[in-house]
């Protein structure tokens, strides 16, 4: 099959990789600008979330479980700079909330053993795992929590995709048209026909579907995140999730991410707001004065895609045969993206999938105008 995948974030890159692995003739077009995947914090730890929606939880759980398979398929070791299960420490405002969450985690582990160890840690035990924290309360640790470097993961997926014969163009697709049989894709320099199309265009999905006469329940949300550097061996430090917006995600060689903001009213704006960034870092001062005072290396800005009910959707659009879409992955899309990409690649080959597909149908989000 000749397939064009438009959008090279986590969804498009994973779908392209698995389609190329299945022997398809795949071309991936990615504009890159604003991409959420490259800006993301990289926390993979859905089990401690208090979101009640079961459809979301089952998808996020399946996504977290799928990561080791993806790494194996990419020939990446399970402990690498791209992905590593370093564990997650979560804080709550009071001990009774933490105890409640501890019980929820134990219950969830019955069907999700990948959570690993679940331990209530004292402030001293937390400091042993993360020396620059100064907590005055207990925290909940789960060993299966991981951190992933979205940018490096995309690079690896695209590299493996190209080795499998995939074609890659860093460019904007400006137009998409259905033909008698198949689809026409246009960029500034290319006009080409394909049998099937996959749209992994994140928050920009409406731009390609509006001209085809469809409304899309997706909007952009700005996220800012700070990279700081400290002089410490941070390679195996766990991810820390304090109460509030600012999570702390350590990577190798002293690099630590702090963030991220959720700015609904800023939509697709990609400028750095220094005041918001300063406030975000200041919010962790009590938990870690050293991190709050550390040198800022960079600020990342990306655009998440949101739907009205905060759930992702993916699948074929009934009125547009051969056009598959995935969007609305919100703030947990690095967790759910790979399993969504893998599932889409399987559908294109009419293969059975683990996920219950009707739960995430695009029908409720994409309507003929
Ligand atoms: C600051 C921040 C922190 C986050 N932290 C986490 C986290 O800790 N854990 C987690 O699980 N998730 C996190 N997320 C969410 C996650 O990053 C996203 O949900 C996920 O990456 C979305 O992937 P995607 O492939 O759908 O879209 P994107 O990654 O946005 O990719 C879409 C791509 O399509 C391209 N594109 C759009 N239109 C066109 C076109 N016409 N032609 C060609 N290319 C086009 C764009 O340029 C972009 O590169 C975070 C997001 C942000 C912004």
From TrEMBL:
FAD dependent oxidoreductase domain mapped to chain residues: 2-347
Gene3D superfamilies linked to this entry: D-Amino Acid Oxidase, subunit A, domain 2, FAD/NAD(P)-binding domain
GO CC annotations on file: cytoplasm
Source species, domain of life: Bacteria
Co-factor requirement: FAD
GO molecular function, one term: oxidoreductase activity
UniProt keyword annotations, A-Z: Flavoprotein, Oxidoreductase
Any matching Pfam family: DAO
Keyword Flavoprotein (UniProt): yes
Family: Belongs to the DadA oxidoreductase family.
Protein name: FAD-binding oxidoreductase
């Amino acid at each position: 099959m000749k397939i064009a995948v438009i959008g090279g974030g986590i969804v498009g890159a994973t779908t392209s990789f698995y389609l190329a692995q299945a022997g398809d003739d795949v071309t991936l077009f990615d504009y890159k600008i604003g991409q959420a995947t490259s800006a993301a914090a990289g926390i993979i730890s859905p089990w401690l979330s208090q979101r009640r929606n079961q459809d979301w939880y089952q998808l996020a759980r399946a996504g977290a479980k799928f990561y080791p398979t993806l790494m194996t398929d990419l020939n990446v070791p399970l402990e690498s700079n791209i992905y590593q299960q370093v564990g997650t420490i979560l804080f709550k405002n009071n001990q009774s909330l933490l105890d409640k969450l501890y019980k929820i985690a134990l219950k969830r582990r019955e069907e999700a053993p990948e959570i690993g160890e679940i331990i209530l840690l004292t402030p001293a035990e937390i400091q042993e795992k993360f020396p620059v924290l100064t907590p005055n309360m207990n925290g909940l640790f789960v060993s299966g929590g991981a951190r992933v470097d979205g940018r490096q993961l995309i690079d690896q997926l695209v590299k493996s995709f190209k080795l499998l014969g995939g074609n890659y163009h860093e460019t904007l697709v400006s137009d998409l048209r259905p033909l008698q049989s198949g689809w026409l894709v246009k960029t500034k320099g290319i006009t080409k026909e394909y049998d099937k199309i996959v749209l992994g265009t994140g928050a920009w999905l409406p731009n390609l579907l509006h001209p085809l006469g469809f409304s899309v329940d997706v909007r952009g949300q700005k996220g800012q995140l700070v990279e700081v550097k400290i002089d410490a061996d941070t390679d195996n430090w766990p991810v820390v999730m304090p109460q509030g917006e600012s999570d702390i995600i350590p990577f190798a060689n002293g690099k630590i991410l702090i963030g991220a903001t959720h700015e609904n009213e800023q939509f697709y704006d990609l400028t750095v707001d220094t005041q918001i960034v300063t406030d975000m870092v200041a919010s962790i001062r009590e938990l870690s004065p050293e991190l709050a005072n550390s040198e800022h290396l960079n600020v990342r800005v990306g655009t998440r895609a949101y739907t009205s009910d905060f759930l992702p959707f993916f699948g074929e659009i009934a009125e547009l045969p051969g056009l598959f879409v995935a969007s609305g992955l919100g703030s947990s899309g690095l967790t759910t993206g790979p399993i969504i990409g893998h599932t889409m690649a399987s559908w294109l080959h009419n293969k059975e999938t683990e996920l219950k597909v009707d739960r995430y149908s695009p029908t409720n989000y994409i309507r003929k105008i």
